[in-house]
Amino acid sequence: MKRFRRQFFLGTSALIAATVAALWLHKKFCALPDYPFLTGWILFAAMLVLTFFNARKKLPFLALGKAETWLQIHIYLGFFTVVLFLIHLNFRAPHGWFEITLAWLFALVTGSGVVGLVFSRTLPRRLVTRGGEVIFEKIPALRHALKTEAENLALGTDAKSAVIAEFYAKRLAPFFAGPKNFWLHVFESRRPFNALAAELNDLRRFVSETERATLDKLAALVRQKDGLDYHRALQLALKLWLFVHIPLTYGLLVFTALHIVLVFGFSGGAR
Amino acid sequence: MSEQLPAPDFDAQNYARPNQNWICGHACEGQPCRQGPDANGRCRATAECKPVLETNPGETKGRWRCTRPGEPCEFGPLPDGSCCRPIAKCSPVPTLRVWRGRVTLAVIAASCAVLLIVLGDPPWRNNFISPGEISRAHSGAAFAGLAATNHLNQSCGACHAAGNSGPNPMIHAALHADPGILDLEKLANAKPAEPTAIDESCAQCHVAHNFHQPDAPTISCSFCHAEHQGKMMAATTDENCIFCHGDATKMAATQTGNNFTPVIHHFADDHPQFRFITEKWRDPDTLKFNHALHLTGATIPNLPGGAKLDCAFCHQPDSAGAFMKPVNFENNCRVCHSLQFDPETPQLQLPHGSAEFVTAFLRSLPKQYADLAAKENQADANNFVQQKLAALRTQFGSGEELERRVFFSTATFGPETQIGTLSGGTRALFPGCELCHEVKSSVAGSPAITKPMMPERWLAQAKFNHAKHANISCGQCHDAVHSKDTADILLPAKETCAACHSPRGGVVDTCATCHTYHNATVVTR
User: Fold this and answer.
1) Is A59 helix (H, G, I), strand (E, B) or coil?
2) Domains held by chain A: number
3) ipTM score
4) Rounded distance, CA B418 to CA B405, Å?
5) Fewer CB within 10 A of the end CB, N or C, for chain A?
6) Mean pLDDT in runs of 10 for chain B (525 residues)?
7) Any CB–CB contact under 8 A between B161 and chain A?
8) Residue B174 touches partner A, C-beta closer than 8 Å
């Protein structure tokens, strides 16, 4: 925690200092005739550095510094790029379909990055609080194992309770069949699990002592499945934001390349 | 809570490889095969083991041995050496990372496709890449017609070499741009307002810039006129003007002779006093007019209808309301200043506008009276004419004296008053032309009357609109009630304007509010 605070302090200080310096330089040099070209190149260079973070992860064999350092650079340079973007726009709204599209792409990439940062700062803490450690890729196998165990308890040859079998067929089979309640888990709602647990508890009044032991085991499996779904939902959220952030980043680079061509072709290359 | 979930396990025989792109299709059942899919997502499962042929010394055929991890299977390899426990083939599942890569490629492909489609179609392309709405002057049918007349492209290509062309010419234009794409040194060292290549496009139609100073430095059109900012071209800002007018070096270099324009930043602060004040300009008009007398004099009669003479009676706005129509005798003076020269004959008046006409009129008085008699159906026209001429002769002595008094008398009382008068005395008298005009005697022919010269505008470089100032009285700016001399220039001083046109006054005070830089001249060739 102490290390995190130190990183946060250094990063935030550097970001504030860079922002102040950039705004001061903007005020001083904004009258330069080709100022938008210069700010554009600086912005483009910053975007390339940010994009290279993705490539850095694909090149672990190269001695390019620690991934953690790259991540810190990515986060704070990402925020600073927003400042550069506003300076490049001269703090005015863009005009024209192409420039508006380009600006929206930038906003979406930045916004998804901020969402990802929030996710990566909050979701792991929630996972630790909830307990357990599960590799995301193993979750289907674990879910299958839980389902098999629950089926054996409720429907197996040793099971002799029609009440439990019926309850399993109606309520528990769909629950164990696959991942459930993605959004409710993301928003930390335990309402479906509590409802199911309450139903299991209600069922205890209608079964024998032996069957109650089975119900207790089923309740434990339901808790494990719910915990597994929770892990899946949060780990999936930690991965899904990249489905917006990374593809749009490359889309943004494509549009940026055309922007450069248009700017030089139409401004510098006038007839 | 930790007891709710299974503890992490590490099965050496069933090792998970989350960094690989494909997952065994049996993984969701908790039974992935040991080999897993290959790099291309194909199932590599064959059998649980690959039997090995072991041949002991002296044997020719040998024996197949099961190599299954853990322990050999119950039945062992088949006679042909294959494993007896084949593994069911699966359909490997791509990982999220593979899906993310696919989505990324799809977005890149979609971006390129959309851009190629849009850039390939001229109407879409021009609308899509335009960084903002073109001004009215550079768009529409009128502009297209002008461009066609000047043999230019009627769309973006009129100004941009890459305009109205496909992706390849665009890239070519970008690669051959000046400054070049990576010519950062040139980009950083470009001089402000320096003409660029696009200015040549402007000059295709705007052939002759009419600069307000002939020795002003040549600056880029786009320095002041930003296109693609909407239907109305963006207004020139004070910063554009201050680029030169705020720079003492530039101003010193561009001014010759009377260095009357110092460095200027704001109208209310360091804008110089108007030249007509600092240089003590005087109105050179030879017409004699006393504003103070006409506006405040006790002898000035009321106008027909009873209204008092005021500024608006003589100074009428033109059709646009910006400036005032020129004052003229017929509309503004004759109502009071009669040209009646014969006290007894108000129907007969001198002509106005030409000294020769007046002379000719006076020298043909018998004919003028005869015409009047005929017009009024006098029974004895000859007698009427003789009576009138005799009366004039009695009053003036001779025709020469009458002519002299008509031109040169300025007296409004005494004997010479008798040149003309009207009963009741409510109208002004006509003592002679020289009361208002400069009349010069001539040895031969008529006296010469200097034609009045009233400039329509004193500050020709400045814009002004009287209509926009209609809510303030004339006297707030024009001190006419104290002006007795025609030579007075009744324009306000800078301070009068700055009282409103300043940050303190709250009214717009930009340079372009009053000044124009040049008159854009659009020509067709």
Assistant:
1) coil
2) 2
3) 0.89
4) 10
5) N
6) 48 65 82 81 86 87 86 88 88 89 96 90 84 85 79 77 80 83 81 79 73 71 84 83 85 66 86 88 91 87 84 92 90 84 83 91 92 89 91 85 84 52 47 87 82 84 88 93 93 94 92 76 45
7) yes
8) yes
